[in-house]
Amino acid sequence: AERLGMVFVDRKGNDKKKSRKRAVRQAVEALLINSSALAIFPQGGRSRKCVGPKGERRESAYYTVGAVDRIKRDGAHLKKGSAFIATDAAIEIAASGSKDNVEVIPVAISGASVVCPRGTLKIISGMELKMRVGNPIVIRPAGVGDLEKNSEKYREFVEGINLQIDNSLKTLAKVHAKLEQRFFEDMRSMLNSKEI
Hints:
This protein is mainly alpha-helical and about 200 residues long. It is built from 7 helices and 6 strands, in the order H-E-E-H-H-E-E-H-E-E-H-H-H. The chain has helices spanning about 15-35, 70, 80-95, 110-115, 140-145, 150-175, 175-190; strands spanning about 50, 55-60, 100-105, 105-110, 130-135, 135-140. The strands form 3 sheets. It has a two-stranded antiparallel sheet with strand order 1-2. Strands 3-6 form a two-stranded antiparallel sheet. A two-stranded antiparallel sheet has the order 4-5. Strand 1 (about 50) and strand 2 (about 55-60) form a beta hairpin. Helix 1 packs across helix 3 and helix 3 packs across helix 6. It is elongated, with a radius of gyration of 19 Å.
């Protein structure tokens, strides 16, 4: 993993905050020094398993990743590391005088929780994975030039980038359409045709 230039966040260590900051710093350095592209998985893990009423595996996906206490909080299903990395890289680019933009390209992967859900290493063959690529979220140096790290304005900017990433991923993965469809399927199975 080290040879591939991967940046890991120690989520089980004693000092998680320090580990997160170190990972952000390493990722920003990879972007700036090596002019590298960076793939980030802001949900931080695989989706929980979801099984339908007939025992079939269902895509649980977007809102079911992470510790239960975290995903119960509104908007906490998506970790902010990618937004911090993009913002910090843009701040450093702006400080260098460069006019280069930082682009975050959202990529949604659907079907992974069916093919290989959390808690198992068994991969189900013959299932479909879909990958959808969204429009870039562009951060211009001029937009971050006056941000001071850890200020209220900085935190609000990071929250805004994170919200854009979240909205883009939800749109790409068609999360709400799938949830609505599943709701109506569940309602039909619980009610008889006269009640619908």
